[in-house]
Amino acid sequence: MEKSVLESGCELVTLALKRHTTHEKDNILSRLKHPRLNLLPNTSGARNAEEAVLATRLSAESMHTKFIKLEIHPDPKYLLPDAEETLEATKVLAREGFFVMPYIHADPVLCKKLEDAGASAVMPLGAPIGTNKGLKTIDFLEIIIEQSNVPVVVDAGIGAPSHASYAMEIGADAVLVNTAIAVSGNPVEMSRAFKLAVKAGRLAYLSKFGSMSRYAVNTSPLTDFLQ
Fold this sequence. Notes:
The protein is of the alpha/beta class and 227 residues long. Helix content is 39%, strand content 12%. The chain has helices spanning 2-8, 49-63, 83-95, 108-117, 138-147, 161-169, 179-182, 187-207, and strands spanning 12-16, 38-42, 67-70, 99-104, 123-124, 153-155, 174-176. The chain has a three-stranded parallel sheet with strand order 3-4-5. Strands 1-2 form a two-stranded parallel sheet. It has a two-stranded parallel ribbon with strand order 6-7. Helix 2 (49-63) crosses helix 3 and helix 4 (108-117) runs parallel beside helix 5. The model has no long low-confidence stretch (mean pLDDT 89).
């Protein structure tokens, strides 16, 4: 895990609060003590806003950070986020000074409500968690990115470097990847592949794509050389 994280070039590592322990010999954080890395605790396992708020307050004390990835998914089978509870928890935590990054459906209306509620970023899913299906919500992701005034992190469902690159090409600010790397045949090399894909996608977005045409367009002029 440590080698994969470092090879990926990432700066934020998310950690479920239920996986955290203060016992040094069992503490996963002891493998992530590198200057570049910052911890992003998440509330995975919370079933409602009340549980998520409590978990966030505990994380601030035990992990010494005001950043939180807000996850509320009461259904253990599909792990889909609860929109109403997520919005309510975001309002509470933003008022308390937390930097809230909610994991939610790719719902443009919900994303604007979360932004208005004080979310520091929005994290819409590309596909259900762990499915590796890619950007199944692409049409909605494009709308979210177009109208968002906070960073957009595409979270969940990314299964290949090409998926990550595509997310960056359409203007996402970042992607969150776990399963695609963790279950690959070579997690360290797969981490490197994702790093390169994210860089390529971002560079392509900043370079601005050429327009599409219904008809063929000559890449070499037929007569201009005669001038």
